[in-house]
Amino acid sequence: MKKWMIFCIGFAVIFIGGYMAYNNQDGKAREVRIVAEYQAIKHPEGAKTVYYELNRKFIKRWISSKYTYPISSDEVKRYYDIELASKGWQQIQYNSRPDYIFYAYAKDNLELVFGLNEKNSWTLTIYYVDAKY
Fold first, then answer.
1. Is residue 116 part of a domain?
2. What whole-number distance in Å separates Cα of residue 21 and Cα of residue 36?
3. Is residue 98 part of a domain?
4. Full residue range of the structural domain in which residue 39 is found
5. Do 76 and 69 form a contact (C-beta atoms < 8 A)?
6. How far, in whole angstroms, is CA 76 from its chain's centroid?
7. How many CB atoms lie within 10 A of CB 91?
8. Quick check: is 6 in a domain?
9. Where are the alpha helices (DSSP H) in the chain?
10. Cα–chain-centroid distance for residue 58?
């Protein structure tokens, strides 16, 4: 009898925990907002999407993407400074390795990291600051 009760309680905990993890409204609301903010960003003329991925982990949501472009890195940086400022993003301090060029922007509880890479490409990653694990 005791083993049966432990089994039932364990099953209930796993079922409830799984339901909350995969069907949480907070996570879904975060996803809708992060996708909307990402889609509101316009990219430079001639930019091509190389990679795009929407990632999920319980309530944490983030988008990773990579683009290529036919203009210089300085022009891309200037373009995003203007584009992101017009959408309410503010540039913030971002610590990265010295051999990489990254810029960070914040808006409410979102952070966007913009990285310039070799071979005329850049990455954009947008995520929630208050959902770190």
1. yes
2. 22
3. yes
4. 24-128
5. yes
6. 20
7. 15
8. no
9. 2-22, 25-40, 73-86
10. 14
H, E, C per residue of 39-67 = HHCCCCCCCEEEEEEEEEECCEEEEEEEE
Count of domains observed in the chain:
1
Per DSSP, 88 falls in state: T
CATH code, domain with 110: 3.30.980
Whether residue 16 is predicted with pLDDT greater than 90 in this model: the reply is no
Q: Are 62 and 127 in contact (CB under 8 A)?
A: yes
Q: Is the pLDDT of residue 84 over 70?
A: yes
Q: How many CB atoms lie within 10 A of CB 44?
A: 16
Q: Is residue 15 part of a domain?
A: no
Tell me the per-residue pLDDT of 24-83, one tens digit each, with 9 for 90 and over: 677 788 888 889 998 999 988 888 888 899 888 767 788 899 988 887 878 888 998 999
Q: Which letter does DSSP use for residue 129 in this model?
A: T
- Name the residue with tokens 């509101």: 40
Report which of 64, 59, 56 is spatially closest to residue 38, judged by C-alpha positions.
64
The helix (run of H) or strand (run of E) holding residue 121 is: strand 121-128
